[in-house]
From TrEMBL:
<dbReference type="InterPro" id="IPR006059">
    <property type="entry name" value="SBP"/>
</dbReference>
<dbReference type="InterPro" id="IPR050490">
    <property type="entry name" value="Bact_solute-bd_prot1"/>
</dbReference>
<feature type="signal peptide">
    <location>
        <begin position="1"/>
        <end position="24"/>
    </location>
</feature>
<keyword id="KW-0813">Transport</keyword>
<dbReference type="Pfam" id="PF01547">
    <property type="entry name" value="SBP_bac_1"/>
</dbReference>
<comment type="similarity">
    <text>Belongs to the bacterial solute-binding protein 1 family.</text>
</comment>
<keyword id="KW-0732">Signal</keyword>
<protein>
    <submittedName>
        <fullName>ABC transporter substrate-binding protein</fullName>
    </submittedName>
</protein>
Length: 453
């Protein structure tokens, strides 16, 4: 169950470039690219709504302006559908498969590829990806060495957001390691502000908490093995990480209201607990998208009222974790406009497409050639630089790599078990056993139906 790898060397990239030039492939980089799809309609499916949906619409408008194509965007969440895989399945059954799907989980991308639902991306898209993305992002878009998915939007899930005002009041500086972070939390508490607000109601932030602790403590090799089910959840490294995580919830001073309050708190509420009118905590851990919530929901200026530090390493000699997630553009095999779909994905691979959304905020791109000045504030530029500079050290969200029944479904699997754990963190060994049993069943079921990588 090794993670797939795809490598495009400079020589190979040059060869592909010559081949593309020689065959005069259609696409945005060809001479015939101007308005070549005038009068045709491309259907793109994704999960974005609200501000994200509006900003992605601007990216689609950029493609329309370039090619003349009309683009119809279908949002799963706008239709009340939280499970993107089931949403696409139902569209296919109804004969309404989109031309392109913006897949929000690497496990779902692998599932679609193994079911034979996806069209491999052509050499010209591979070339554009090789120009603009670190190899790790091409790997995550590949299944059995075949390139299917172009990661357009990314998230940096190793950022801890804090209130500069609370830190200044308690005379606290951003910590350099996990031990310092706990010490800072205790000092903040003594100054009158609990350290963290945790979004336990949503459950998925708990998986992100665990993954950052695990990667920061157990290292890259163990993380990769656990993410691909090569080691079990009863491994000593897992139990050690659960113990570290559980310590946060043994005191209401470290987490506002303890585990009980965390289970009543969703992501927006956890951010509001730090940046709202009545602050209840000094820090909130989650990804770069917290910046968008701070400015959009709570009308705070990120550069002035908020700042972040990278999730710190756990233990001597350890490296800080860099965990990411993202949305990958894939071409559906039963889509009606395959050539236009490939040109659209080639367009998404360009810095120009990423720049459109970057300027609007609430967006992070793994595109190494996107000018950081495109981002609207200095804080986001710092987060983006941290992600790009991590290069091959980036690790993809572990729960997103797992079968959905274990890593991505409310009320079951890892989500439910970590919620139970923060309510009562007294027995990490028992929690590890339950996680191991749930993971084993999910991977077995997924293997039987051909839905794992």
């Amino acid at each position: 169950m090794k993670r797939p790898r795809i490598a495009i060397s400079r020589l190979a990239a040059t060869a592909v470039a010559l081949a593309v030039t020689a065959t005069a492939c259609s696409g945005l980089n060809s001479a015939s690219g101007e308005q070549e799809f005038s009068g045709q309609t491309l259907t793109v499916a994704g999960s974005w709504t609200g501000g994200e949906g509006k900003n992605f619409r601007k990216v689609l408008d950029g493609f329309s302006k370039k090619t003349g194509a009309k683009v119809k965007f279908v949002s799963s969440r706008a239709q009340g559908r939280d499970d993107f895989a089931l949403f696409i399945r139902d569209l296919r059954k109804a004969g309404k498969s989109p031309d392109v799907a913006m897949v929000p989980q690497v496990g779902v991308l692998q599932q679609f590829a193994q079911k034979g639902w996806l069209e491999p991306l052509p050499p010209r898209v591979e070339l554009e990806a090789a120009r603009n993305f670190a190899l790790v992002w091409q790997n995550y878009g590949s299944v059995r060495r075949i390139f299917y998915g172009l990661y357009f939007k990314a998230s940096h899930k190793s950022t801890v957001w804090y209130s500069p005002k609370a830190f200044e009041k308690a005379d606290v500086l951003p910590p350099k390691d996990y031990k310092e972070m706990i010490s800072a939390g205790q000092k903040l508490s003594r100054a009158g502000t609990p350290a963290f607000s945790v979004a336990g109601k949503d459950a998925w932030p708990l998986t992100d908490w665990f993954e950052n602790i695990y990667l920061a403590q157990a290292g890259l090799t163990n993380y990769a093995k656990l993410a691909t089910n090569e080691i079990g959840w009863t491994d000593p490294t897992v139990i050690k990480a659960l113990k570290t995580f559980g310590k946060l919830f043994k005191s209401k001073d470290m987490v506002a209201g303890g585990g009980t309050e965390a289970l009543r708190t969703d992501l927006n509420e956890s951010v509001g607990a730090v940046y709202g009118k009545d602050p209840k905590a000094a820090m909130v851990y989650e990804g770069d998208f917290v910046a968008g919530i701070i400015s959009g929901e709570f009308n705070r200026k990120v550069d002035d009222d908020a700042n972040f530090f990278e999730f710190p390493p756990v233990g001597k000699g350890k490296q800080p974790p860099v965990i990411s997630g993202g949305d990958a553009a894939v071409a559906m095999k039963d889509g009606k406009n395959k050539d236009m779909a490939m040109s659209f994905i080639e367009y998404l691979a360009s810095p120009k497409a990423a720049e459109i959304w970057a300027k609007e905020g609430g967006f992070l791109s793994p595109n190494i050639n996107l000018d950081l000045d495109a981002y609207p504030d200095e804080t986001t530029r710092k987060v983006a630089k941290s992600l790009v500079d991590a290069g091959e050290a980036v690790q993809f969200d572990m729960s997103d790599q797992a079968p959905g029944d274990f890593g991505g479904t409310p009320g079951q699997g890892e989500w439910q078990l970590l919620q139970e754990f923060i309510r009562d963190p007294s027995d990490p060994e028992k929690t590890a056993q339950k996680l191991d049993q749930a993971a084993a069943k999910a991977y077995l079921d997924a293997s039987a139906t051909g839905t794992t990588g």
